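User: Predict Glutamate decarboxylase's structure from this.
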Amino acid sequence: MTDPFATSLQRVFLYISYASLYIYSPRYTYFPTCSTAKKETMLAATNATEEHVHSTFASRYVRAPVPRFKMPEKSIPKDAAYQVIHDELMLDGNPRLNLASFVTTWMEPECDKLMMAAINKNYVDMDEYPVTTELQNRCVNMIANLFHAPVGEEETAVGVGTVGSSEAIMLAGLAFKRRWQHKRKTEGKPTDNPNIVTGANVQVCWEKFARYFEVELKEVKLKEGYYVMDPEQAVELVDENTICVAAILGSTLTGEFEDVKTLNDLLMKKNEETGWGTPIHVDAASGGFIAPFLYPDLEWDFRLPLVKSINVSGHKYGLVYAGVGWVVWRNKEDLPDDLVFHINYLGSDQPTFTLNFSKGSSQIIAQYYQFLRLGFEGYKNIIENCMENMKVLKQGIQNTGRFNILSKDIGVPLVAFSLKDSSKHTVFEIAENLRRFGWILPAYTMPANAQHVAVLRAVIREDFSHGLAKRLVAHIEQVLKEMDGLPSRLQHKKTERETQEEVFRYWKRLVDRKRAGVC
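Assistant:
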C-alpha cells in the first residue's frame, strides 16, 4: 500500500520490483523497504539524473544532456530548446480542468493577436507608447464608473493598473497608512503603531502587506457555519490606530460577499462617536466583476461614503489572462501626493505609483478589448452562464448525499463542500484521487477558529461547461465508490471533533512534506 503523503507529490511514478515498492518523484525520493546501502545507491543515481534534463525527441538535434540547474556552456539549436521545454510542460495540469484557480484560461483569438502584437512594449514607456497609456486610463475610468465613483463629467478617475490584486492591495494599504500618518502628525500623536482590521478569511496578500509594511493585522476569527468577517466584531476591533477596515467581496474560501453596507453603517456610527474617521477598503478581486452585473442593487462600492478604495482582478472575472489587476480611489484626496513619483528619464514628466517598474502592455490592451468587445451585456451573459453551471455542479454534488455545501447562491460562482462523514476518508484523499481524471480541486482547512473544517472547492469560470459539471460529478461518485471499498485510515471510533482534528493534522503533514518553491 502506498504512503498517502508520498502519493500526493507531483508526477509520482510507481516501480514495483519483486517484493519492494519504490516511489520516485522529482526532487523527492521515498524508499520504504530498501536497505541502507541500496537506498544510497539509488539516491546517487537519482541525483545524477536530476542534474540534467533529457528529452526524447530533442535527441534529433542534440545528444548532450542539458544541465538542469546551471546555464549550459554552449548553445543548442532552437528546435532542441523548444522540444526540451515542450516535453517538460506536458506534465503540467490541464488549465481548463484546474478548478483551483480563479484566473482566466481562455480568450478570443482576436485578443490573442492584439496581445502578441504588443508583447514587446514596455508599459512604463508612456512617452513612447502614449496610446497604450490612454487605453489604461480609459479602463480606470470604466471601472470607476462601474463602481459608482463620484467622478464629474470633466474629471478623470484616480486609479492604476497593476500586475494583480496583490500589488493593488499593497498600493491601497500604503495610501491608507500614509493618510493615517499625516492625520496623526497633524494632531501631534504618535504614528508608530498602525493596524488594519480584516477577517481571518482574507487572502495571503493582506498578511504580506501587514508584514512587509509593519502594520499590525487584527483578524476577526471565523466560526463553523459563518466563514466571513462579522461586521460587528470588526468594528469592535477598530481603535485610533486603525488605518482601515478591509472587507472582501468574494471570499477565496467560499465565494461569499461580506456585508459591506452593514460594516459602513456601524463604522460611521463609531466614527461619529470617536472622531477617528476610519475608512473602508473593499477587496473585490473576485467579486468586482460579478456584483455590478448580477446584483446591481447591492451596495458595496463607492455608493457607501466610507469606501475609499477598491481593488479588482482583471485576470479573474475581468476575463483577461493572468497579469492584470486594478485599484481605484474614491477621489484624488484619498491618494496622498507624496506616494506618487515623477520621472523624466523616459522623455517626459511621468507620474508613477506602482511597486514595480517595467511590465508588459499586453494585459492592459486585453482588458480594454474585453470592455469594448463585451460591454455590460456581454459580461452579464457570461457571469450568468457561470452561475447556471455552478448550480448544475452544486445540485450534482448534493445528490450524492455525501457532502455539505458551504458556499452560498449569492457570491462568486464556485462550490465549496465538505464531507458529511470524515470518519473513514478525507477531502484530501478525494482531491488526490480526482487527479487521476485530470481534475485539480483544492482541499484545505478553514482559518481560525474553524480550522477543523476541511473543504473541497470548485471555481466555475467561463470555460467550465454544463457537460464538464456532469462529468466532474460522475468522477466524484466513482472516487467515492472506490474509496468506500478501501480500509479506513482510522483505527478506532473517534468523535466528530477528533475526526476533524485528524483531518487538519493530515493536511498539515501533507503540506510540510511537499517540496514546493515560493510563488
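The chain has a mean pLDDT of 87.
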